[in-house]
Specification:
With about 90 residues, the protein is mainly beta. About 10% of the residues lie in helices and about 20% in strands. The chain has 1 helix and 3 strands. The longest helix is centred in the C-terminal third of the chain and has 8 residues.
Length: about 90
Amino acid sequence: GGKGVRDIKTTARNGKVVSIVSVRDEDQVLMMTARGKLQRVNVGEIKAIGRNTQGVRIMRLDDADSLAAVVPVPPSEQEEAETVPEDA
């Protein structure tokens, strides 16, 4: 039997893995917290690391907040989102 594949080394500093999404460098990732904070990040700007590490921070959370959703945004949807009027 296999032992599985390690995705990231978890500690009290970085917490549990709550989401994994498959993305490409040209994609963006949209993250939302339980308190409604949104952050959109270009995947190509996220530093690549090995599996036996503690990861890189791409979003800071307040102590009482938690990550609620992570959604990959492909290039075709990025263009649509950028053309939405501000008053919509």
